[in-house]
Design brief:
Radius of gyration: 18 Å
Number of strands: 11
Helix content: 25-40%
Order of helices and strands: EEHEHHEHHHHHEEHHEEEHEE
Shape: globular
Distance between the termini: 9 Å
Largest sheet: 6 strands, mixed
Strand content: 15-25%
């Protein structure tokens, strides 16, 4: 049974400005079923479609229906009515790298790429590394099977969204650099250097990427990744100038 969990968390930080209201959705990872359930919860919480919607990346891999997730993101009216922004995650970056060069296949496989291949009707190479020729064949099959609108979706993903005092990004930022002056290595992949630093930043960073048992909101960050592909718990943060309130399946 899908249930909702609501929590208002301020984390001791001062009020931060944000124009309007936005829901930030954590890592979906092929769980089309949880995405549909979370959209139901968001509609119940915001029936007038007044709030914006930002997806924080990692739509694919690990879960059973990556292709179905992209179909929903592209076609569901509940998303379209909320002026969606789609951020790039490291998993989408790895898929795009594989589409361009089959040598990225083994690395993608370690991230759960085989599950995405299967969702598009492509048989993954056997083994963890696989044979280079088999990966080249899989790359060709994926390019044939991938709908044009899905490929366009992956290629048009953006790295960040800045709104008021909030900075939305997949993984986080390097605390030693201005938040707007970084690249894919930081925005898509950073982990410990961001999470273990305690300095206040110019913005509150809203991110996914690193699964945590509970969503997090404090003076530095709002973390939304609750490991949906394994936990069955997909989380969105409803954010306005009063703070973050979480909604989870």
């Amino acid at each position: 049974m899908i249930v909702s969990s609501f929590r208002q968390i301020f984390g001791g930080r001062p009020r931060a400005s944000l124009p309007g209201v936005v829901y930030a959705v954590g890592d979906i990872h092929g769980r089309r079923d949880l995405l549909l359930a979370l959209l139901d919860l968001i509609v119940a919480d915001d029936p007038d479609s007044a709030a914006g919607l930002i997806f924080l990346g990692d739509y694919i891999d690990r879960g059973p229906d990556s292709a179905g997730v992209i179909d929903v993101l592209l076609s569901d009216a509940r998303i379209a009515s909320r002026r969606p922004v789609f951020l790039k995650g490291n998993h989408e970056a790895t898929l795009l790298a594989f589409i361009g060069d089959a040598q990225h296949g083994p690395a993608w496989n370690r991230f759960g790429g085989a599950d995405t291949l299967v969702s598009y009707g492509v048989r993954p190479p056997r083994g963890v590394t696989g044979d280079p020729a088999a990966w080249e064949e899989a790359r060709g099959q994926l390019n044939d099977a991938l709908p044009a609108e899905h490929l366009e979706f992956f290629r048009e993903l953006v790295l960040f969204e800045e709104r008021g005092d909030y900075f939305f990004v997949h993984a986080g930022v390097d605390p030693n650099l201005p938040v707007q002056a970084q690249g894919e290595e930081e925005y898509l992949w950073i982990r410990d250097a961001f999470l273990q630093d305690e300095r206040r930043l110019s913005h509150i960073i809203v991110h996914g990427h690193t699964p945590e048992p509970e969503p997090v909101s404090n003076r530095r960050r709002v973390g939304t990744d609750t490991g949906a592909y394994a936990s069955g718990r997909l989380t969105a943060a409803r954010i306005d100038s009063s703070g973050a309130r979480f909604i989870s399946t």
